Structures are given as C-alpha cells and as structure tokens.
Amino acid sequence: MPILKLLIITAVGAFLALQRFNILSMSARKHLNAIIYFVLCPALACSILTKTITFRSLVMLWFMPLNILMTYIVGIALGWLLMKITKVPSDMHGLVLGCCAAGNQGNMFLVIVPAICKESGSLFGAVDVCNEKGMAYASLSLAIGNIYLWTFVYNIIRISSGRIFNVNKVDDCTVDPVSAIEIDLDNHSTGPMVTAEVVSETNDSGNNECTLPGGRAKVPEQKQVVKILRTIVEKLNLKAILSPATMGSIIGITIGIVPPFQKMFVGNNAPLRVVEDSASMLGAAAIPTLTLLLGANLLNGLKRSGMKLSIIVGIITVRYIALPIVGVAIVTAATHFGIIHHDPLYQFVLLLQFALPPAVSISTITQLFGANEAECSIVMLATYTCASFALTLWSTFFMWFVL
C-alpha cells in the first residue's frame, strides 16, 4: 500500500508534465525544484526532528548514522566495480557512483513507515507507539541522509562533471594540467565554470624530473597527487555541504535535544509554537511535491540516450540485489554482538536503508550542474519502476526476518 501510494502520486506528476497539458513544464519544474530545495525540505526536516528526536533517542539510535554511512561505502565500492565492468564513460562516473551510493533515505521512509504502522494487524505493535517510534527513525534517517548526500554525492558529481584532464606530451614527458578546479555555484547556475591551469614548478632538486622547454620542470607524480588532493579539499563547496536541508536538520536536532529550546517551540503551551506549526505546514507539502516532481522528471527517461543498457542493469543489480544482501549481513552481525537494541521496527528500518531506490535529490544535483540530466532521468525511471517490485519483496522478507 505505501508503494502503491507513491506510484499513484508519481503517475499524477508524469500526467501533469505531458506536453498536452504542460502544467509541470521544464521551467515550472526548475522553479518548483528551487522551492523544494530552499523551503520545503528544510522545513520538513526541522519540523519532524523537533517533535520526534530527543537526546535519549539520539543516543539509542547512534548506530543509524553508521548504518547509512555503510550503505554509501558499500554502494561506492560496488559502483566502482560496475564502472570497471561496464566501462562507464568518464563524464558519467559521478552519476553512477551517486546512484549506487545514495538511497532515498528521506521521503520514502516518511511514507512507508507510517503506512505500515497504520495497517490493520500491524506486525510492529500498537499504531500510536509504532507511529511515534517510526517517525523518529524516519526523521533521523532523513537528516543523516541529507548530510551524507550533500557532503559526498554532491562533490562526487561536481568533480566528475567539472574535471578536465588535458595530457600534453613534450619529449616523452607528460604533464597533467590539474592545478585548479573552480566551480562557481553561488548563483546555482546550470553551467558551472571550470578552469584548469598547467602545473609547473622549477626543477631545483634535479631528481628524476624531465625538463621542459623554457626551463620548466615536470612536477614529480607524488607531488602532483598531493597537489590535486589539496586542491579538491580546498575547493569543497561548503555551501552545498551546509545545504538548506542539512541546516534544517541541524536546527531540528538542536531544538529536539535541548530541553529549553523544545519547551519554547514544541507543545500547545510553547510561546513560539507558531514557528513550529508554520514549519510543519510547509514541510507537509514537501513529500507530495517531491513525488510529483519525480513523476514529471521520469518522463525525460523515455527520451533516447546513448546510455548503455548494461549500466542501467548494473545500477539496478547493485541497489536491489547486492546492497540488500550486504545489509542483511551487517544488521545481523550488529544484532548478534549486541550493538543495536532488539526493536523489530528499528531493525526493519536499518535493513530497508540498504534496499531503497536512488535519492531523488541526485536529479536536483545534476540539474544544478547541467550534466547528465537525461541519463539521470533514465536511471530514475528504471530504478523506480523496479522499486515497486523490489521494495515489496524486500519489505516482506525483512518483516519476516526481524519478527
């Protein structure tokens, strides 16, 4: 039922984007995307976390951030293996790694978990208790997922779409001109500016360095690697890492775990409850709006592209076969050694974090850079079509597994 609800709203979004109606046109989707990014998602994360997360629950759920991090590490490793097998073009490396690593940790849980709790004869106990615990798990997953997504995947796609390698050979000496990677996203432009300069230093040591015309020397390979890594670290976009959704999550967690703040904003007698109520109203619009936008963007996946079928099949295999199997092993080991407390709903959420389709925000990131948008739509169409079957099967198995 939860997955069916998502599919219905997604179908409505695709229907509204049809050229015959053109309600969610390309320009409308870009404006709606900006509203989601700057307003709705931060409000959703903040409003849910203020009401569901406390210091005690945060301590009890300490394993969840590590579990989500494991989904990223395993996903990136499997994505790298997929790139080697299918020989993914270099300009698509970021997209493939991002789709393999980042699952839809946010709105998917906020739809699935409450719906499971409200089902008649729910396996996870009383509706009120299940819903309260489930929303705490879902909201923390949303917060941590936002932080990881905009820290790792954003920069992976940014570097992949903006890196330039021009290899100039002069008298058998090779110079990699990667000394500066500058991307201007202050205005969130769709065409990032990328510049690269030739690395050159004076040969003072004379140890195994080729001298180029004009007295310039090739930088040793080790120094080049250090220089490139230093440049990447220096050029990490802190504005993206501290995205609006991440800031909303941090504010929500802070209000939730600090009792004086919680008394100010949460509850019928809170003096500033109108602020929290307003954030809740805005946040309530985030999930249906995101799902409508997903349906509209999926139409682009019907367009022809040079993307190989093997890449799409590989991403589906990673997300719906390899990752869930690894997730079962990790959660089973954590339970066996007493790392996580015995709560079937909590274990179910931890397991499901390994079986989710790619994060919808990957489409937002590709649109910000104007890179691989069509390919991203194709991947989203394929993975979310398969999700209706894969999520149902894995959810059924996970429920049987934890109970």
TrEMBL record:
GO terms for cellular component: endoplasmic reticulum membrane. It is found in: Endoplasmic reticulum membrane. The keyword Transit peptide does not apply. One of its GO terms (biological process) is auxin-activated signaling pathway. It comes from the Eukaryota. InterPro entries: Mem_transp_PIN-like, PILS1/3/4/5/7. It is a multi-pass membrane protein. The chain crosses the membrane at residues 6-23, 35-53, 59-83, 95-116, 136-157, 236-258, 278-299, 311-339, 345-369, 381-402. Keywords: Auxin signaling pathway, Endoplasmic reticulum, Membrane, Transmembrane, Transmembrane helix, Transport. It holds the Pfam family Mem_trans. PANTHER family: AUXIN EFFLUX CARRIER FAMILY PROTEIN, PTHR31651. Belongs to the auxin efflux carrier (TC 2.A.69.2) family. Involved in cellular auxin homeostasis by regulating auxin metabolism. Regulates intracellular auxin accumulation at the endoplasmic reticulum and thus auxin availability for nuclear auxin signaling. This is Protein PIN-LIKES 3. It comes from Psophocarpus tetragonolobus (Winged bean).
